[in-house]
Design brief:
Elements (H helix, E strand, L loop, with lengths): L1 E14 L2 E9 L2 E5 L2 E3 L6 H13 L1 E15 L5 E15 L9 E8 H6 L7 H11 L21
Parallel strand pairs: 1-6
Antiparallel strand pairs: 1-2, 1-4, 2-3, 2-7, 5-6
Length: 155
């Protein structure tokens, strides 16, 4: 087991009853996930969520709240991930922007579509987060702080 955990973020973005998802290749297998990725040095969780969503989907989003924090140990590699999932709304799409190299496409899927892809989800956290979101759970963004603030850190 690798420790400390990998710090990751994800965004639940719902528009017109569909969820923004990415189709990606992981270990030679096509999987589906929310826009998600790793925290970079000196970046806040919120900044990481916005950046990853833009890089993976070409959608600029606005964070509305957080959903939850999940610890997940991947059975395939034994790595533990500490994932903070945010709730965001779609603001602008940049159709000419290239997506991250491991992303095949960004797409909008209904809850039923996602249920049908259950065996192709990157982890069980993907569906669990959507269900938690649909149950109405939310955490205020003010609950997340970083000291010193990222813009005050000199690199």
């Amino acid at each position: 087991m690798e420790w400390p955990p990998h710090i990751t973020v994800a965004c639940i973005v719902e528009k017109d009853g569909k969820f923004l998802m990415v189709k990606e290749i992981k270990d030679g297998r096509t999987v589906y996930n929310q826009p998600a990725g790793h925290l970079e040095p000196y970046e806040s969780l919120q900044q990481a969520a916005l950046r990853e969503t833009l890089e993976e989907t070409a959608w600029q989003v606005e964070l509305e709240s957080a959903l939850r924090v999940t610890l997940f140990t991947a059975p395939g590699n034994g790595v533990t991930y500490c994932r903070t999932t945010f709730v965001a709304k779609a603001v602008s799409h940049y159709s000419n922007q290239a997506l991250d190299s491991d992303i095949e496409e960004a797409l909008w899927l209904s809850y039923d579509d996602i249920i049908h892809l259950k065996d192709q989800l990157r982890s069980p956290v993907v569906l669990s987060d959507i269900e938690h979101y649909l149950e109405g759970h939310r955490i205020a963004l003010e609950a997340f702080t970083q000291y010193p603030a990222p813009d005050a850190i000199s690199t």
